[in-house]
Design a protein that fits this description.
The complex is a heterodimer. Chain A is α/β, with parallel strands linked by helices. Chain A is built from 21 helices and 33 strands. By secondary structure, chain B is of the alpha+beta class. Classes of the chains: A alpha/beta, B alpha+beta.
Amino acid sequence: MTNHWIDLRNSDCILVMGSNAAANHPISMKWVQKAKDNGAKLISVDPRFTQTSARADIYAALRSGSDIAFLGGMIKYIIDNDKYFKDYVVNYTNASFIPVEKYNFDDGLFSGYDPKTRKYDSSFWAIKKDSAGIPERDITLQNPGCVFQLLKKHYSRYTPEKVSEITGTPINDLTKVYETYAATGTKDKAGTIMYAMGWTQHTVGVQNIRTMAIIQLLLGNMGIAGGGVNALRGESNVQGSTDQGLLFHILPGYLRMPTSNLATLEAYNKAITPKTADPMSANWPQNLPKYSVSLLKSFWGDKATIENDFGYGWLPKPDLGRNYSWLNLFDEMYEGKIKGFFAWGQNPACSGANANKVRQALAKLDWLVNVNIFDNETGSFWKGPGMDPKKIKTEVFMLPCAASIEKEGSIANSGRWVQWRYKAVEAPGKAKPDGEILTELMIEIRKLYKKGGKFPDPILNLKWDYTDDHGDFDAHKVAKELNGFFLKDVTIQDKQFKKGDPVPAFGFLQADGSTSCGNWIYCQSYNADGNNMARRKKDDPTGLGLYPQWSWCWPVNRRIIYNRASVDLDGQPWNPARPLLKWVDGKWVGDVPDGPWPPMSDSKNGKYPFIMKPDGLGAIFGPGLADGPFPEHYEPLECPVPANLMSGQFVNPTVKIFKGEMDKHLTCDPRFPFVGTTYRVTEHWQTGIMTRWQPWLVEAAPQMFVELSEELAKLRGINNGDKVKVSTIRGEVDCVAIVTTRFRPFKMGDLTVHQVGMPWCFGWMVPKDGGESANLLTPNVGDPNTMIPESKAFMVNITKA
Amino acid sequence: MTVTRREFLVISGAVGAGLALSSLGIDMGPVRAYADDLKKIDKIKTAKQTTTICPYCAVGCGLICSTNTKDKKIINIEGDPDHPINEGALCAKGAGLFQTTSNNPNRLKKVLYRAPGSDKWQEKSWEWAIKEIAKKVKTTRDANFIEKNANGEVVNRVEAIAHIGSAALDNEELWPLQAMMRALGLVYIEHQARI
């Protein structure tokens, strides 16, 4: 989230789309309700009338996978009706930039596309720069080649009629949503978006979110209280696990994973460090070498020296351009190329798209280590449905770990608040904290490598001193490592520090090896003031609910990021009634500002507000993605329509399609005529691995179901409560039918399209007869930027069992 | 935050309500047994309180765990009224967090091992398991280590071992976890954020 949970109360209009917050983030509704009590409007856009819709002022239905069409229509409405916030758009976004002449868009394809590689050359989307290297601009926004005019042209095709025919949303409902949300495009109004997997799990997932980001920039809703783009993250520490770099493409703190082409630290630092010639751009990422060197010092300690490139060579290097993400990982495993596997606190046998393939892949492993607090379908895959244990060679180690209340440490919530948890009790039986398990395992591996082995340097040189005097894992030691400390006595910015002192904040980190820091964005979390993550003071000086002394949030306790966009060029709040930041007597008052510089009207030292962008401005035109600088509607890989009404390009042209025996998909096939989608229920969490073992919750939500409309039920002769089978080309799942008005058929031109929905929280293991995972049905195709699978839109059949 | 004293009004309130329900014909046996257990302890003197954050979604609600200092068991978990996000409120999952504790007999409590071709688990010791896993990591890594890629670039990586997980761990566990996997040379490192 750019903002945070309590800030929802500051909004004038809350759009919930791609999320069912009331069911899946129930306590968020406390703050949505506070906003409503203050007069805010709540809009719910969802294929199904959800618990969130039931609280909404406006509900609009849309067919799964048509969000860009829906939102593209909103961009058109905002521009056509002059609803955008002009001062903001001109000064704080790249609307005035002018892309190069070879930028073009024609019939669903942007210029630069290579059909052989299914990739774009993004140099076709570059921004024109003047002789000094500064982007050319037309601040009148009238140049037909400027971003604003290109945007207008691009979305001129998204007429209400065409949008309605694609989304199945009645035009009246579209208009109501557009009017209500676009009304936040004034100085004194804030609109916000709450989205979740309903937006990410599509082959156009990132562009779904970008469409909304463009809307938020047009309306001046970024960086302000009650605004922002807010991803409602689904696991208690998925923000933290992303921050710590548990993904193939990033190191801790979102530093890019070094690739095979970058042989030296110098080459790496050059590649990750953007440049700008514009003195008005803070270009904060120019500091990245300070963070990468401090990270290497944290990895290898004293072993990282300037002479050995700070141990850069000890990091593994993925091949440039090769993707090692989830779907590829399981594809390689299915092909037998992966021999050993750690499934640590995760249950891919139920959470992976096309889970039948995942389960077959597990059977090809030599060994599997599964760490969990409960037995699960992954660790016990060898005794699951259709498996013959005698034929499965995989050795499995099931390691019992401690639950959250049985250990100490921090987790980061969706609003980037990093909160400390305490240990209440010991873990039961032989169960141990994960930190204990991984520390012991590495100590044992190091013992083996001391006797020799392939390339032992990184293993033996890794700094591994995270245990206390008794040899137990010590979370405080790691927390201090994440914060960082000085490695010698230094004076920085007139302040003196001694070797071993904690680094106060990331502004003090150095690229010369004099500081160590495990994660630059966590620098300040545990400094000389103590463990800031454990703070519990409830002062609220701004009155906006920022609670700056409750826990700690990254970066540098800034509660709302991009907050320099909440003020005008003179540093005065756009909305004086909700002053997030204010320039008073040469100082910023309010939230921690996005950098110390004076406001933009200071011609000498003023800076643009979007300090993480090299150009300093919000990117309405975004050349950094795989699938285009503007979002464009494409159909899901599996869809119910014979053509894309928007262009001749049916599906996202850059999507990777797997072609193995288990990678089936099809579209417009009479055997699978209905749209299917997946979701969650309040009582179960993710695959249900924690909740399905709890009698209280199982009693409330005991078994797999499918929701379908009364019209579809009639068509198929299905009654409420019947046992039915839902199938796709990849698998089938038995469900109890819930016949409901929550789903309604979509009228799309002459076409009537039915949609059904299922939760994905069940699995064969427990409860008995509770049913199977909906991921047996979902396709293993992903967004070209993130490779997040398209679990939200696929084609199914439904029959009586 | 660890607090040693706190009144148990909420527990006693909940138990009272539960017993009242039994007069309506609902089987409140388990609740009554739980209430009987609670009666046996001097709640104020024996309870230790610790704050925690909910392990489910990422709203980050606060909870208070009450632990019996005599038998070291959790006797109650409830929403933290001082927490600014949830102000004491919880959803069904958070309110049921008690059932993730050792009070749930389904918790895994032993190291289990499944041999190739076997149809059952065997109980093992931690010492054995850690040693065996370390050996397997080394054997697989050494047999499949890639020093250079097809272009002749130095890559020093291992593709034959993969890791997924986990958004369920603490930051202080995740950082060393990624460091360990990267020191081993793994490039297939993924977790929940990808799906």
